[in-house]
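Handout, section B. The chain below has 537 residues.
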Amino acid sequence: MDKKLLLLTLTGVTATAAMAQKDVDKPNFVVILVDDLGYSDFSCYGGVIPTPHIDKLAERGVRMSQMYNTARSCPTRASLLTGLYPQQAGVGHMTADLTKETGSAAYQGYLNETSVTMAEVLGSNGYFTSMVGKWHVGHAKGVTPFKRGFQRTLHSAAGGFYFPQDEKAVLFLDDQKISNDDPRLPENWYSTDLWTYMGIQFINEAINSKKPFFLYLANNAPHFPLQAPADEIAKFKGKFSKGWDVLREEIYERQVAMNLLGKTYPLTKRNPLVPLWKDLEPDQKKKSEHTMEIYAAAVKKVDDNVGILVADLKAKGVFDNTVIIILSDNGGNAEGQTVFGTYQGENPGQVNSNVFVGQAWAGMSNTPFYLYKHHTHEGGIATPCVISYPKGIPAQMNGKVVHQPGHLVDVMATLVGISKARYPSKFNDHTITPMQGVNLLPLWQGKNLQRKEPIFWEHEGNIALRDGKWKLVKEQNEKEFQLYDMENDRTEMNDLSKQEPAKLSEMRKKYDEKYNQVGAKPFKMKQFRWFVPVAEY
């Protein structure tokens, strides 16, 4: 972003308007979702990529070591926005309509009318609501953020681009398609900068309207096709030359040193499909290094923009009364043409190139866990989660890591609880499914959660259930259910299904009950090339 433009942004609100916001009692909310980021990609989770601005929020706020998403983009967005499990919101898979194949509207591929979004709930309770970034929950079916409670929006239907020169770069401002060089946008933008820039403009409008604000900032970074400004990529030259084996061990050592997981659990074994770094041909090493340099630059831009947003909130005097939640939509992404991902284009990392990190680097991004995006072992569903709320989180909790499990369904319940908003039983003449989560604020304040219901997952036939310390899990292509004691085995190394048959039976019964409650249906997918059943490790 142009420095002069940034300066204008940071000083764009009048002192009178800023004072008006200080008179607002209700807290503000900023929910930042990143795309395809692994559990250990932030440096405050042990990662290689420096993320100083996010780390600073963690130092003055809290981190969650057991926050969960739904393993994939669309279902995560549906769950986050509605406080429901994806099937309850109508997005049990992706945005394709699979009602005929499944016989259920739980897989219709767009948000249904028996759910309400956070914007609809908060907007009905006096909030100024806005959204920027990747939508991906039904734009093609006419379900847009502007129609689901967001009063100001700049969004893309499903992401897939970084620069305005990309032919896939299509933007909608308050539901109206606009040109990529629209005068209301900064010149020659990079998408991560653009979302933050427009988010700040919408916050300005909220403050001028003397309302508390809710901003949903949905980055498309660092999702493929990985692209970033060339000068940012250059900053990471040589930073990954040690390779995925050594760097994964180093991440794990940092996680142990910071006691990230609350206990020291063994590091999962490396995926046997991934070759040792030392055995790679020089040309493949060069390509793989460059792939990760591009990825790191995309993550750094996310962090840079968190810094810009925080500086703006502080300049306006509203930072302390703003709840910021940062998390990822799934685990690190193993997709790509080969084990090394995809590396295509005349100038990889720039417009019209096509780069995926692949399973080799995704294993590092998900340290210390097993498996990746799509899956319900920890590598697919565990997300970093950083929370800042100076007015509501006591100073003695600053820098702490909280270890009780949370899920995306809890975000709605948390915002409703903190704002004291009313969650409707009816909305637009439709009966609304009750929200499924619990308020996480007590957890961030050092107290215990009172979670009565288990946490549920189903994605592409990969299933899991978390109930207290116990986790039931079975990937579609695994023959047997596994049972793990997550207090003593967070990295899922010791299957207790044979030693604890009564608990296994109990968990399977609970899973079936939840499966029926949320409206899930049998789902069959072909086996992914990166999948190795845990029993074969």
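Note. Residues 1-17 have pLDDT under 50 and may be disordered. Compare this with the example in section A.
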